[in-house]
Amino acid sequence: WISVFLGEGRHLVPSHYTLRHGFTTSAMLLRNFEFQGSNDGVTWQVLRRHRNDHSMVISSHHGRYAASYPVSTAQPFSHFRILQTGANASGNHRLCLGGIELYGVLVL
Hints:
The protein has a single domain, classed as Sandwich (Jelly Rolls). It is built from no helices and 8 strands. The protein has strands at residues 2-5, 11-20, 33-38, 45-50, 57-58, 65-70, 79-84, 99-107.
């Protein structure tokens, strides 16, 4: 997994997130993963589940694979993570992620 902590006193009510693949090829693209939120970094809530997801496509703007996903929650979180739950496009369990962007309402 890979996680993001927004810092003390910062919470985000997420509306969308974008993931970027770390390579210019489709090798090792994420296929099975969860987007999760937490307020203590220990207990996690699944915000979106992906099973055999093929939505990452090559971005003409960045020249890398990327995808954006909506999230339906009204709850703010200070921690977010991508948890790989199965094999990637190459059939192994290496988590290759070049970037994550979080969108929503920041609560201070």
